[in-house]
Amino acid sequence: MKATEDPAKRQRRGHGRPTLHEVADAAGVTRITVSRFIREPGKVAPETAARIQAAIQQTGYVPNHQAGQLASGASRIVAALIPNVGHSIFAETIQGLTEGLRDSGRELLLMATGYSLEHEESQLRALLGWAPGALIVTGRQHTPAALRMLRDAQDGGTAVIEIWDHPEDEDSEDGFARIGFDHKAIGRTMARHLLDQGHRALAYVDSGVAEDYRAHERGEGFAAECEARGAKVHALTAGTGDAFDAGRAVLMALGSDAKRPVTAAAFANDHLACGALMQAQSLGISVPGQLALLGFGDFPIGRQLLPALTTMRPPRAGIGQAAAEAVLAAMATGDEPVSRTMPCELIVRASTVPA
Amino acid sequence: MKATEDPAKRQRRGHGRPTLHEVADAAGVTRITVSRFIREPGKVAPETAARIQAAIQQTGYVPNHQAGQLASGASRIVAALIPNVGHSIFAETIQGLTEGLRDSGRELLLMATGYSLEHEESQLRALLGWAPGALIVTGRQHTPAALRMLRDAQDGGTAVIEIWDHPEDEDSEDGFARIGFDHKAIGRTMARHLLDQGHRALAYVDSGVAEDYRAHERGEGFAAECEARGAKVHALTAGTGDAFDAGRAVLMALGSDAKRPVTAAAFANDHLACGALMQAQSLGISVPGQLALLGFGDFPIGRQLLPALTTMRPPRAGIGQAAAEAVLAAMATGDEPVSRTMPCELIVRASTVPA
DNA sequence: TTGAAAGCGCTAACAG
DNA sequence: CTGTTAGCGCTTTCAA
């Protein structure tokens, strides 16, 4: 037994921070009254409230959410699984999420899957341990075990949402709310735009990230539309390093292959397209005269180049905000969150349509 | 008393998920044995382990971290406060953080402050409620209340780290470990590079984000070095919209002001500098002949332009990884985390040095 | 308006 | 190797 029987920190376990009990002592009430004051200040007598308020200030009390959540069973946590937090497209979605959650009294628990379904599964397990009130996952592809966890969570009252993917066909329903758009349909839109300009020999340049199935699906839609209209499509895949460089490399490949007299190319994202555009400029290839270029994502740089890049504008931050709204509503009402289609807009600029 | 005495879900409160107790029943042992199996599988007899493993599978048990942390007092949470999650510079830091934390059994609780110290304070309060084992905040400027919370947390054994700022002078020590670099010194380096090229009339274009004091400090260092070497410095501030556009606008302002015969300009970030560079191209201003341009951040686009942009390369993801390592080490040993200078590298390209 | 009793799900300490 | 006892800090009835 230590001689240091300092009354302020005589706890045996715990983390030594002030608890409700110490605030209550300092205010001359019991713990429950302090607890009430924190949650429903109106239900406490003004004088008591003042004393408690002072005691909180004086002790520097910070409520312990773990204990609170454990006791109440209500969860304040919103957990999100994102492929890559550093990628500008998802970064803005997360920013939208954090903004949408701000001042809602909810906290965001975030993990990056690195586009790996296996990581997603293990991280989902870790996340579920926090008994989140809501779960936001990217896309609709999951391992069987992850799917089961998501279903169990939803059955247990957790709001589950899949973002960045919302196919139009009923066949792909999996019982979870979705916020996003149909990537195949977007691929079709991209093809349609180019076909309407009269192109008959096109290319789709896919992302080098093998697990980015959404980019692949845009390619499928693109190819389907081309074929439906009797045009030729070539499928390429970009490299994985710097996206601008990868785009430049793709353009070289496209140009050096005499068997591919492509007059228009669509890309999995704007960075690839911008790289190709800059390389075309270096090579003196006229855009869109000799080659039309179409991107996806509407990254700021695309607007700055000459010619400016035609692209699809997805609601990057909007998806995050919509997801925040949806889970907040679901957590408030107890209902399941509702799906929402967030449309993607075609931004026509000079890289596909001559001035 | 309800008639529905379904043995599987007869709990009164709680969230209805299976608990240790149900796993234990299914495995024919007591809760503590299951708990042990989960934390230290080696300390359980192989046969028992197998039965427990099966019971976990069968029940779909997920450990409740809130309860675990509450009981053990040990925290698995790493909380981080970042100005803007969507900004590419911080997005990569977060990505570095999540990667550094992966498979460590820690979870990242993330909040964005929007560059506001008031937000930081209130979010810090919310974060502290989770009794995080580590706290990562951006920069060394905090409100007095936030500072007190950080100190209290550190005194209570929480690992606290400030990232993206690590001044060299002792005067600015505040007792927290820091991972980053000295922004004033970087500003000096930037100026030195331009001064060494013979420039005598320079400009520093500051960020339009008023609260980004780190960009301001780079400007201070820049100005100090210029003045020390008897050169003239003009201070400008960029607009707040699209950074490329803001950079373009700055270049127009610079060019149209006859009283400012500036021959070199440094920018708070690469996007501003790239905007200015592209605008110079549009206007036929020769870079670096008539005007040398210097950025900060080493964003990928800077390498692609012609001339390529000279810039400072900060360890964007590296800071996140280093922070992860530092807090993991501190949480493991119980010591305070250690500071680390992450150097920033000058990348000389053609926008300041003619080929 | 305030308090007492009970318990959320888990783990530390000590036995056996 | 396994179990018992006690309790983490808070909130929910229900009662005063």
Number of strands of chain A: 12
- At CATH level 2, the architecture of the largest domain in chain A is 3-Layer(aba) Sandwich
* Discrete helix count of chain A: 13
Can you tell me the CATH superfamily of the largest domain in chain A?
Response regulator
Report the major sheet of chain A.
6 strands, parallel
- The secondary structure category of chain A is alpha/beta
Could you say what the CATH topology of the largest domain in chain A is called? Rossmann fold
Point out poorly predicted stretches of chain A: 1-13
Distance between the termini of chain A: 86 Å
Query: Any idea what the shape of chain A is?
Result: elongated
Which pair of chains has the greatest number of interface residues, and how are they split between the two chains? A-B, 64 and 66 residues
